[in-house]
Amino acid sequence: MTPGFGDKTFAVQGFGNVGLYSMRYLYRFGAKCVAVAKIYERRILEVDCDIPAANEKQLTKSNAPRVKAKIIAEGASGPTTPEADKISLVRNTMVILDLYLNAGVVTVSYFDYTMEHSARQIMDKAMKCNLGLDLRTAAYVKTIEKVFKVYSEAGVTFT
Question: What is the pTM of this model?
């Protein structure tokens, strides 16, 4: 997959704020919308596109093997079930976590400020552990380390 949006296609499930703005910005940057569906119409996730965006609990172990996308954008909270996540890992499909894509205006503002730094930290953590961690697991490990550091500095950890 080449960088940029110019040669990419996408599908959007649901047309609320996340769907609307995702479509608007992907289109502005040159991507082509190939499908839009109402909420909970799971077949849209199986269309031939590069980036689908889905509602909650829409990617499951039953439909994940049929998803053709190379990147899954978790536009809603928790659209990918744990079983579907495992299938995506095996298929080497990149999953952009809902944590980064749809966590509210305050988080988005903070994320804009720290995105590059955070992404670099997560990738460094994945490489440092040298356990073949996927991005989701590396992000969890990095988050747990940050929480531990805050508790430790406050003097409320046990060692």
Answer: 0.62
